[in-house]
Write a structure and sequence with these properties.
Distance between the termini: 80 Å
Number of strands: 19
Radius of gyration: 28 Å
Largest sheet: 6 strands, mixed
Strand order of the largest sheet: 2-3-1-11-12-13
Number of domains: 3
Structural class: alpha/beta
Shape: elongated
């Protein structure tokens, strides 16, 4: 056996060892790389349209502006998934109009107590003293809101009227929830509060410049807050390119849309139909949809890349969506309504004991190129498994065979070479390990359909037809109770 070395062995007497880590089988990143996209405020120190690494949750406010959509998303991802490698891609606000909401205060013989205000799902208590006037209470609401820089609105007053104005000039702020008494708390006696919905927001981003700066850097999970048709189409085009053979950088996208059941089905009826994008349908929750998107992205990222193969195989159903507040019972979707949202291409969320859980992470892909219904890419899990298989195979194949001679018969031991049969055996061995982890199944069928051959025209090229049969996951059990009466 001839042993080859990666250095020139000297003539000087001595003992010389080189370190070769190529056979360890260990490689790749230690944590998921997550990219969070969103609008920043002009006061942030980051440069728009340039990806930036996020060292800690506390850095987001300074980089993107306290209370910005992007700062809130980044902070949420870092809290939900501390081990993630998080990057952010900030966009400037488009030319648009900031949405606003009007709060009207009334007071007659007010008694001391607390107004239970919720701004974007954040509890903002406002203390009321005996005999406070409506104007005084409005001023206290303004001061309490403006004291919390992390909120995405500012407050101004005109006598007994408070105006909440979104910090971004953008349409997405129209879904920002402002309410009082979310947890059924009562207002102080003699005090009345009327809060209108956020409205009149306008402006959507042009993402082409931002997306162009990503290059071929791999991001396992991409999270963004945009649900307008133009933004979704730009991201759809970018993701199709990232999954193309020549780029092969992959990644899966998560966002969320909120509204009533009727609004969600209306939006989904003209949704992106994109196999790489999962859109969570959120009804009745005070949590902003972009924070729900951050929770979804953090959850799926943790189970796509960091988890063991067997964990990925189990799917994401029933896992907690960190920090997503449930709706009130009367605003919750029924099982029938959630099922219809799935058919329309929205991922669904369920709520138990004041906690929100991911019900099914389905993609927005519903029809093929001919407009026919297509369930082949229904679950995000399918593409997550394929992404893991492809990335691992590419990385390990290069480690095993890069620079090898390509021969028709095996070379002597120690010589870096490969044959068609050796490569075929390499794929089979890997498939069997993955079957043990329940990622794939039917190894005999895989062996029969796997093709590894040398290209007829290029002697330096191997062609592989790789036919994995992915496992399903136990999402539904349907039964029939055929009882008898004796």
């Amino acid at each position: 056996m001839a042993i080859s070395f990666g250095f020139s062995v000297p003539d000087e007497p001595g003992v010389y060892f080189e370190i070769d880590h190529s056979q360890t089988g260990v490689g790749g990143r230690s944590a998921s790389r997550v990219l969070v996209m969103g609008p920043m405020l002009s006061g942030g120190s980051a440069t728009e349209d340039i990806p930036i690494f996020i060292p800690s949750a506390g850095a987001a406010g300074g980089l993107f502006g306290a209370g910005s959509v992007l700062a809130g998303m980044v902070e949420h991802v870092k809290k939900a998934y501390p081990a993630a490698e998080v990057w952010a891609l900030p966009q400037a606000d488009p030319a648009g109009t900031a949405p606003a909401a009007i709060c009207t205060v009334t007071a007659a013989g007010a008694k001391a107590g607390v107004i239970p205000l919720y701004i974007g799902g954040v509890y903002v208590p406002v203390a009321v003293d005996d005999d406070d006037t409506a104007n005084a209470i409005a001023g206290k609401i303004k001061d309490a809101v403006n004291a919390k820089a992390e909120l995405s609105v500012t407050a101004t007053t005109d006598n007994a009227t408070v105006t909440f104005t979104f910090k971004h000039a953008a349409a997405l702020g129209s879904s920002y929830d402002i309410r009082q008494g979310y947890r059924r708390e009562q207002l102080p006696d003699g005090v009345g509060i009327g809060i209108g919905a956020m409205s009149a927001g306008a402006g959507v981003p042009d993402l082409e410049t931002s997306l162009a700066t990503l290059g071929d850097t791999e991001y396992d999970t991409i999270i963004h807050p945009y649900t307008d048709a133009g933004s979704l189409q730009a991201i759809k085009i970018e993701m199709a390119s990232r999954w193309s053979p020549l780029r092969s950088v992959y990644g899966l996208v998560n966002t969320a849309v909120s509204g009533t059941y009727e609004a969600l089905t209306s939006w989904a009826s003209t949704g992106p139909n994109d196999q790489y994008t999962t859109v969570l349908g959120l009804a009745g929750s005070p949590t902003p949809p972009w924070i729900a998107a951050a929770a979804l992205g953090a959850l799926t990222a943790q189970h796509q890349m960091d988890a063991a193969d067997a964990t990925l195989a189990q799917g994401f159903s029933g896992l907690e969506l960190y920090g997503v507040l449930p709706p009130l019972p009367e605003d919750s979707l029924t099982v029938v309504e959630r099922n219809i949202l799935l058919k329309y291409g929205l991922a669904t969320v369920s709520h138990v004991s004041n906690t929100s859980y991911l019900s099914r992470a389905r993609t927005s892909y519903t029809t093929d190129a001919h407009g026919s219904p297509d369930r082949s890419l229904f679950d995000q899990r399918t593409l997550a498994i394929l992404m893991r298989l492809i990335r691992q195979d590419r990385q390990d194949f290069l480690r095993e065979y890069s620079g090898s001679a390509l021969a028709s018969s095996p070379a002597a031991p120690g010589v870096r070479s490969a044959t068609v049969e050796q490569i075929r055996g390499w794929f089979l061995a890997r498939y069997m390990r993955r079957q043990d982890a329940a990622l794939v199944q039917n190894v005999d069928k895989f062996m029969a359909e796997l093709i590894v051959e040398r290209d007829e025209e290029n002697p330096n090229q191997i062609n592989v037809l790789y036919p994995p049969q992915l496992t399903g996951w136990l999402a539904v059990m349907a039964g029939r109770v055929a009882f008898r009466l004796v």
